[in-house]
Amino acid sequence: GTVRAVRHAADTLLGGTTTVRDVGCPNGVAFAVRDAVNAGVIPGPRILAAGAPLVMTGGHCHPLGVEVDGPYEARKAARQQLKEGADLLKMLATGGVYGLHHDEPWSPQLELDELQAAVAEARKAHRVAAIHAEGEQGIATAIEAGADTIEHGNQLTRELAEKMAKRGVFLVPTLAWFFNVAEAEPGPTFNAEYVRKGRMMAEASARSIMLAKTAGVKIAAGTDTGAPLVPHNSVRREIELLVRLGLTPYEAIQSATRIAAEALRVDQQVGTLENGKFADVIAVGGDPTADPRVLYDLRLVMKGGKIVHQPSGADSARTLSHR
């Protein structure tokens, strides 16, 4: 797992992502990779790592999470992740697509008091609380618990979108994952049940993006990279899907740069090209605000003022700040 993570860090950087958030990784692997990148030992983007996510016993992602029941256990697990070096905390308020048969995306999991206990620890440590919530009831609970970001948010309603906008909660829709599953043929990786759930959630996501945009919710691009069918770096696919579902190319690119940096509270260092911030630049062969597909024609990647990737023929490309 660690060897793969090292390779994925390099792939992510070469794909043009200079800062990335890891929202769930067991055994401290993401912490080790983050620290190795910072020390210059291995190539990779700046990494903000959540450590192991907090899940209910038997809940979604339990093989890579810390299973907690009740607010006391949630509080202890949150403190433990912070002790180990977490840059943010991740918890799961609902089930998901890629889980056991009884693990439905709309099924509520961690309860309000459990989420609140962990969110309180994130607040005390000046960290962001990211809450996975696919179903309507779980989204409502996550907002009530004080989430900074709602991960997935598939079954968003107008009322919940307005609450998110009012409270400044960011939506991270992870469209690449749901749409790649929805467009897959059932097979050994995904049986028919997974594809059915994926298609339902992809359709729900299409509605939730428009509800969020209309209500003025800030949308940050995230990918669920690491799940099957979502390779590192899938942020370009995410940008394409955001455009397909109603954002302008400019808005979608902002979702992956400035707004993503705001959601992680690192907008003083990254996310836009400004004095006093890291010189993180990518150059592409065309104007991505006219056609986001030119993001695949990558000519240059610069991280912190150093060129880290420059395929041949990279002279006349236009530049774009990237997350």
The radius of gyration is 19 Å
Low-confidence region ranges: 314-323
Helix content: 25-40%
Q: What integer is the average pLDDT?
A: 92
Taken as a percent bin, the fraction of beta residues is 5-15%
Supply the helix-strand structural class: alpha/beta
- What is the N-to-C succession of helices and strands? HEHEEEHEHEHEHEHHHHHEEEE
Count of helix runs: 11
Give an overview in words.
- With 323 residues, this protein is of the alpha/beta class.
- The protein has 11 helices and 12 strands.
- The chain has a 4-stranded parallel sheet with strand order 5-6-7-8.
- A hairpin with a 2-residue loop joins strand 10 and strand 11.
Question: What structural keywords apply?
Answer:
15% strand, 323 residues, 4-stranded parallel beta sheet, 39% helix, alpha/beta, 11 helices, disordered C terminus, single chain, 4-stranded antiparallel beta sheet
Topology:
Layout: H1 2-14, E1 19-22, H2 29-38, E2 46-49, E3 54-55, E4 66-67, H3 71-84, E5 88-92, H4 112-124, E6 128-133, H5 136-145, E7 149-152, H6 158-167, E8 170-172, H7 175-182, H8 192-215, H9 235-244, H10 249-256, H11 258-263, E9 281-284, E10 298-303, E11 306-309, E12 318-321
Parallel strand pairs: 1-2, 3-4, 5-6, 6-7, 7-8
Antiparallel strand pairs: 9-10, 9-12, 10-11
